[in-house]
Amino acid sequence: MFKSHKRRAFSVAAILMTSALALSACSGGSGGAGGDTASTYDPDEKVTLNLAFWGNDVRAAFYDEAIAAFNEEYPNITVNSSFLGFPEFWEKRQTEAAGGGLPDVMQFDYSYMRQYSENGLLLDLDPYLGNIIDTEPLSENILGIGVVDGVTTGIPTSTNAWAMYQNPKLLDQIGVEAYEGGGSWDDYAEWMQTATDAGEASGIYGGSDWGGRIQNFELQLRAEGSFLFSEDAEPGFDEADLTKFWEESAPLRDGVVIPQQRLEEVYPLAGFDTAQTVSELTWDNFGAAYLGGLGESYTELGLVAPPVTKEGAKDLYLKPSMLHTISAKTEHPEAAATLVNFLINSPEVGAIFGTSRGLPASETQLEGAKLDGLDAQIRDYEESIADRLGDAPPVPIIGAGTLEEKFRQIGTELGFGTMTVDEAVDQFFNEMDVVLNQ
Amino acid sequence: MTIENTAAVTQPTTAGPAGDGSAPAVSPRIRRASVSTGRQRANRRENVAGYGFLLPWLIGFLGLTLGPMIYSLYLSFTKYNLFAAPKFVGFDNYIRMFTEDPQYMQSVQITLVYVLVGTPVKLAAALGIAMLLNYRNKGSGFFRSSFYAPSLIGASVSVAIVWRAMFSGGGPVDTSLSFFGINLGGWVGNVALVLPMMILLAVWQFGAPMVIFLAGLKQVPQELYEAAEVDGAGPFRKFRSVTLPMLSSVIFFNLLLETIHAFQVFASAYIISNGSGGPAGMTNFYTVYLYKRGFADGQMGYAAAMAWVLVIVVAIIAFILFRTSNRWVHYAGESK
Amino acid sequence: MSTIEVDQAEAFQVQTQPAPRRRTIKRKTVNTIIWFVVLASITAVILYPLLWLVVSSFKPSSEFGQNPGLIPDNPTINNYIKVVEGIGGIPLWRFFANSLLIALSAVVGILISASLAAYAFARVKFKGVGILFACMIGTMLLPIHVIIIPQYIMFQKLELIDTYVPLILPKFLATEAFFVFLMVQFIRNIPRELDEAARIDGAGHLRIFFSIIVPLIKPAMITSAIFAFIWSWNDFLGPLLYLNSPEKYPLPIALRLYNDASSTSDYGATVAVSLLALLPILIFFVVFQRFLVDGVATQGLKG
Fold first, then answer.
1. Superfamily for B93-328?
2. ipTM exceeding the 0.85 mark
């Protein structure tokens, strides 16, 4: 239950705030909410905040612990948390956005950042950067991720990068050596063919069609110096590029990768989580979910770099797995910022969550997280690809989610053979037309 | 007083609004006046009674439904992504639907198949089982509950889990069919079989219309069957001459409602396909596609347009059903 | 078709044709046995998926993608233990209690408002009845996803978000045309002579409604109560949009929380929870469907 907010006269709060010198490392009082009194926090004011996140009961337990730790330092801020599954979470946020009542602090997804920011639904965090929100442990790169049209509206909690997971136990079972990582796309295709040849009889395949994930397309574009979409929603590719991409992956669909029908049966799990493929290209924070899906008999995974179109290309990038944002209409921006700072920078939170939200973006939080096993693997992986990391692309355009899903759907139709490559390219560009003109 | 009231009531009033207002100008005013006042009073009483009884529904309709319906109609002529204000675009959405959207045409197609095949099968199963259950009260309680149980898990995630498991490769359906030499493999990922799978799911959940048929069967007076038996009627004759006519009002109800529900199928398809619309769009039924466009893609205006096209189509079908019902539906409470 | 004639016919039958006892008894028993067998086999097929669901609730989650058979490879009751512990600090019984509160209120609301409205449509000749009836049917035609946003905004302006009001109030205002229409059909099946007889005795609409119609549409009322309870129990979208505090969540939302595809999906717990959620409505149905047995209408015609 949301308690009704007690309204205090602004003047009283202002006096108290300006006298809290300890926290005022003034960032010049830029434009934000009400001058230099907005960048400090009053520890005596009793405040209630709403926090919303998506996840399951495991994550809910983590957040409960995190909030308890938060309350030890800030006993006057009560945090009411609520959570839902990912699709329901966004259904609800969109309805709230239409009606005007987003929660104070939210766990946020990168693909929705632009839409909510550009419509003025997210609080400008610039006034709090460097004071309430500690920016020391966050690199320039990281801070730049949550910037939309020059305004910081989100801070990443953690990052992930595109990677290739492998299943060592299954590889042993079919007697194939692990893929070394990197190499050309052709190399990877050949390797998958070897694996499929060895394992098909037992229902094990080398991997899945990379043509079904837009990230692989993006990777190839970036390796050639291009990009997927610019800040102004201009595509960095044309029909010819997309056709080439899908034609080059066509041989895969002809008996190299896991048949589409098998994948449909286990969707939303991938072939990898159900021990039907030995490799998968995906985000590096999917590891924990894979191990969970595979069950107790699988204890470790291999993690290597994806193929690269051109040696030396800086095609990979660090993507925020999730961010924290604050509602523009919050009545307690300072308290909200304090909570965000805690959730992002605190080492205790790092210890609680580990890498379940991704690899912590903040150095202090990373230190607090005890990383072993898979978590350590992920950290090592991100260190190992440092040379391949290019600039992060701009915050995804509005409709990016729709396009990604369309790409995936087209991928499945190509897999079924119900669509030709030309039809697929047509449909995708059609969809882009609709989405970009909304 | 009583005489006048009876006169007012027993006059033929088959037309909707009563009150013919045809009091002739030149007549002994006293007698005519009292009769027409009596009728007017009766009419007014009917109106008061009608609106009185209807008050809760009226408040709900005007307050909660009509406003949003009109608003959604307005939205169908706009581009609206839930954040910025709606932008008027005239008939663009409607044009796009029918000329530029192959996914839309596909969803119309599979929805039609679902309705035209699924609804009759489901109703036939429901009626058949209801009659079977009606045969004998003792012991039928357990069966009644068993047949209704599938409808209880309705639109929950478990329905997806169980149905996918039933129809997966190597699952119970596949194994049973293989026993007869039919090797279809999994239905779930099979572009051609996933629609039949969804239809079977609808039929499996025939519990709701079955219960309604049962209630209707219970309302059929036993004497009618006995009288028919006396006349020498066998089971088929009894079915045709007693059961069907007496059940016609309930059949009509179920037919209309199941058709409407079939057109609006959403939850089961959405959950089973995990929101994807199934292999190659084969579970992308009309409202699933509508929902994806509206909520997932932020194209609420387009979704509203789709919704209203559906409303119009179903309204036409409902209208036809109502019209033709005059010929075959018999209400025991009303003289024909 | 008068009862007198039927009685005579029956009496006549009994007098002139003493039933050959043994044969009819044997035929009756044989028929009953066939009836049982047929029903039992159909039941077996229909219930198999549910049986599978029950048995699967004893499978660990990871088996769900890999083992479609009936028997778990590694049976466990962990799913149930986990589920009863609840989510995010809220015990399972709390979700149950919430669902119960909402569902029972819905039943009461629907029975009252739908029967009143149905009586008006079916028995009262008021001005505009045709148009309003068409409007009522019309409200069933629009997919709910499109009107849910404006409805949400309305309740939001009234500051009724995170309360149960938006979920229960509409039920008291007969917004679900299904029930109104169902009762209309049943009322229309009741002979008007009964109404008129009462009217001659001086009864007005209210008296007729309460003393004659309501008792006679008991099957429809019970059917409505059953559906109202179950649909409310399974309602997902309403609670999703209108409730924020997890401790107010009813079961369907709580159920989804066990199954989030972006982290590990706990199919085992999901199935366990949905079975537990199924129990109350199954019990509700089993208890109340018995009342469908009474052929109430016939009682009105005799004598």
1. MetI-like (1.10.3720.10)
2. no
